């Protein structure tokens, strides 16, 4: 019962997009999904949180801040109108699409919380269950003809009286992280101006033209549509399952400084040249070396006592923005998914061994290089690889990106003190460092008893590279 008293519902409203002056009739329109939306269509959700210092009362928030939040949201939804709509998934052979009407709204929930703002907005381990209270849930419905209806976006503002504010978004994956970032930056910029300056969104409006995203190989849409119908057949069982409890899992953020990252790069390139100078690249990205260290450290932490399963396959999946990789121009503000899914695999003992970090760097670097030359090389196998990853192996999926500049999302309260993503233990989240240019923040979910050993393994990895360089 104490948990119920911690969070109090203040208001739940539905914000409609502002009406255009010339609008006199009610209309319904639809936005088709592209071939790259199909692998992620359905009940695939992303949850992001923005924490801000806000030393005011809930009453002050409701009287002075909330009206501007609502007004600016209503204006921004004129430009991002599909987000107020619904994803409709009719039964085969019909394709899914986004339905938009003049009556569409986005739910905005206001919560007052007595939880510890400083703790929840810190890098220290905190309960996934506690973080989950800060995000709104997205529901679904079904029609008589077995059509699924998925609302696309829900928003929540949680006030921690006299301490802080958390603005959270939960969205259906009909748009990628870059699109969500575009929406949040546009909304926050307008809100910061008091709801009067639309310059940002007017200078870079979202592009809804599906013709700009052409299948570079031909035939991928048919493959993805077949995979989508297979996945759709599993939704009923998945959606009626009881939501799993998260009390035993916690999330912490590890910050890698620029010097840490440069040390990792130098050390691993030296090791690579010793054994295979001919195939050693001249440069490694911070994404590759940090992800490799995190992947190996997690495997060593979670399976340090599981020697009998050391031949089990471990998978590392990340997505790459393809807007500049398709051989034809795709606007940076394209609305939808424009992602290539990349899979790397190693046996567990190859990650746990002495050369685990180098092995991980090599396989992630090769996967990334292959994607650059041919983004959809194995696209016809994406669903099969996904099933294999979860059924036969153990996955680690990357969410977020250091390229989004999420710490520049200012609603008028200053830069966020923390930007968080809520996800399962099968994921790791990435963001740029808030306080150091060139650094990276990595969010990891583990059981509470695993963190001490995980931090030790990560520190040992960093120390090894530093001592070698020195």
From TrEMBL:
One of its GO terms (molecular function) is acyltransferase activity, transferring groups other than amino-acyl groups. Keywords: Acyltransferase, Transferase. PANTHER family: PTHR31625. This is Uncharacterized protein. It comes from Vigna angularis var. angularis.
């Amino acid at each position: 019962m104490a948990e119920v008293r911690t969070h109090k519902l203040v208001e739940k409203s539905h914000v409609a997009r502002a009406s255009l002056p010339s609008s006199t009739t009610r209309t319904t329109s639809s936005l088709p999904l592209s071939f790259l939306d199909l692998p992620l269509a359905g009940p695939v959700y992303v949850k992001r949180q923005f924490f801000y210092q806000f030393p005011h009362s809930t009453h002050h928030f409701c009287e002075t801040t909330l009206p501007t939040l609502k007004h600016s949201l209503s204006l921004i939804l004129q430009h991002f109108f599909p987000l107020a709509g619904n994803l409709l998934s009719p039964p085969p052979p019909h394709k899914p699409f986004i339905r938009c009407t003049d009556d569409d709204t986005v739910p905005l929930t206001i919560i007052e919380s007595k939880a510890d703002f400083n703790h929840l907005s810190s890098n220290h381990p905190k309960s996934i269950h506690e973080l989950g209270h800060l995000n709104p849930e997205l529901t679904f419905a079904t029609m008589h003809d077995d059509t699924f209806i998925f609302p696309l976006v829900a928003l929540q503002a949680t006030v921690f009286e006299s301490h802080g504010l958390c603005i959270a978004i939960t969205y259906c994956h009909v748009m990628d992280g870059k699109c969500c970032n575009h929406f949040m930056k546009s909304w926050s910029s307008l809100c910061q101006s008091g709801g009067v300056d639309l310059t940002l969104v007017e200078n870079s409006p979202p592009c809804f033209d599906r013709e700009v995203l052409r299948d570079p190989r031909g035939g991928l849409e048919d493959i993805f549509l077949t995979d989508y119908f297979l996945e759709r057949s599993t939704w009923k069982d998945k959606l009626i399952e009881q939501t799993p409890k998260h009390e035993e899992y916690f999330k912490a953020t590890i910050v890698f400084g620029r010097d840490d990252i440069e040390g990792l790069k130098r050390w691993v390139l030296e090791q690579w040249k010793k054994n295979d100078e001919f195939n050693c690249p001249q440069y490694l990205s911070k994404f590759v070396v940090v992800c490799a260290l995190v992947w190996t450290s997690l495997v060593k932490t979670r399976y340090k006592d599981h020697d009998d399963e050391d031949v089990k396959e471990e998978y590392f999946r990340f997505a790459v923005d393809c807007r500049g990789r398709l051989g034809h121009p795709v606007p940076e503000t394209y609305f939808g998914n424009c992602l290539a899914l990349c899979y790397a695999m190693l046996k567990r003992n190859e990650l746990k061994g002495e050369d685990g970090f180098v092995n991980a760097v090599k396989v992630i670097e090769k996967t990334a290089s292959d994607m650059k030359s041919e983004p959809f090389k194995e696209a016809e196998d994406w669903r099969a690889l996904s099933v294999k990853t979860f059924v036969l192996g153990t996955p680690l999926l990357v969410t977020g990106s250091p390229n989004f500049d999420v710490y520049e999302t200012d609603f008028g309260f200053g830069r966020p003190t923390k930007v968080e993503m809520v996800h399962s233990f099968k994921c790791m989240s990435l963001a740029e460092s808030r306080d150091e240019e060139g650094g990276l923040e990595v969010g990891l979910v583990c059981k509470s008893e695993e963190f001490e050993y995980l931090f030790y393994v990560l520190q040992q990895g960093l120390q090894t590279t530093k001592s070698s360089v020195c």
